[in-house]
From TrEMBL:
EC number: 2.5.1.21
GO molecular function per UniProt: D-glucose transmembrane transporter activity; squalene synthase [NAD(P)H] activity
Co-factor(s): Mg(2+)
Pathway(s) where this gene product acts: Terpene metabolism; lanosterol biosynthesis; lanosterol from farnesyl diphosphate: step 1/3
Protein name: Squalene synthase
Pfam families: SQS_PSY (PF00494)
Transmembrane feature ranges: 281-304, 387-406
Amino acid sequence: MGSLRAILRHPDDLYPMVKLKLAVRSAEKQIPAEPHWAFCYSMLHKVSRSFGLVIQQLDTDLRDAVCIFYLVLRALDTVEDDTSIATEVKVPILMAFHRHIYDREWHFSCGTKEYKVLMDEFHHVSTAFLELGRGYQEAIEDITMKMGAGMAKFICKEVETIDDYDEYCHYVAGLVGLGLSKLFHASGKEDLATDVLSNSMGLFLQKTNIIRDYLEDINEIPKSRMFWPRQIWSKYVNKLEDLKYEENSVKAVQCLNDMVTNALTHVEDCLKYMSDLRDPAIFRFCAIPQIMAIGTLALCYNNIQVFRGVVKMRRGLTAKVIDRTKTMSDVYGAFYDFSRMLKSKVDDNDPNARKTNKCLETILKTCRDSGTLNQRKSYIIQSKPQYSPTLIAVIFIILAILLAYLSAARPANICKNGFSGQLLVIKSAIEVNFCNEYYTWWHKPMAIFEFQCIALDPIYTILYQTNNLTRVADVFYYVLRLSHESQSAYCKAKWISAVRLGICAVSSVGNLHVDAVNI
């Protein structure tokens, strides 16, 4: 119901959401044939679907290297996070992990769910790692060694000061930025970025995650380690867990704003790093998570909900970011919009208001000085409504009908024979199936079943399926027609109400085998 409400409030989210869903499905099907590579890419999509999507855009050699780099560090992180492992066992594993990646036989059982599978079958990752180019191997080994040593250091060390906070984030995320920069350079597609800029790329993402995940981490059983620095939270409460209690709401929000302001200090470096990138695929790979981070901080700032529940960008906005982010002007536009959104929430009475505003003014000035803001599509400002209330009401009715259908039991068999002609379908968020249930219109046989699809969006998509290959193309208007070859069987129309309205919003039509698809 929440997704439906979000679509009604933001109908222009629908198209990028459908595109994203199709792209994710396509990426998940691009699994290599070799067993070890098949395991690695399958596991990548399980532990991070969004990362698995973005990584598919990279060239093959670099894509393989980044995939293995990501899984190695995920495995390292799994060891660090498993509180059931005794310290005297955990520390040596972390310190030696960079050597284990060369051992095809090594594995260590820990973690839960998909992470346990990753650790139990880590030999697949090692086998794939050993097939990478030597330059990639050296970069991954170096970062794994440094990260393992840093994690081991903080197993027995609390995050007391802001310097500790920066050091911990460097070990677990800044080094990821350094490693990726080395991989990009080893591919020959990018110059080697400075360590300062690479480090900031990682710190900005890591600090955003630490802020956003406060409640989940503080409530975790067994108790998770926390990385909010005492130097910040001790100004507001006596114990870090006190921030979640309602009586401390004012102090909690002030502490939150202090943490967000600290994270914003890395934005200038991030913008500089991204502006230096040349390869379009690498650029998108780096830029999309950064935009997601500034968007998340804009939502978290001055928001008590961080201490009450989950705060994250809605799916439609995430899909928009992925769909729109192609050039540096898109990045400047997104950072400008989300920084303005954040600035509008700054309370002059907040203890850190002056520092926060100073950070934001610097970011906004950098974005304005780029001279590209007039090219952007705003994420937060709508000059005029793009959809009339009537159209939204129609969409609501259609979605209600489709949801009612989807809640019913689906037939086991889908028609696979007896159809010829054209299958042209306008996109939306719902699935329609023509099934092995026979239908007569006005109680008489029908040789041809035909109805018209009417536009619901400024941009349309033909979705057609032939031999299990789904393709997408932008169009304006089409008719769906199914011609029956045999009068002994008929299709049941699940959308009688929609047909009578002259409207049908669909995204796909089962696994129908179509003789011809004409565009």
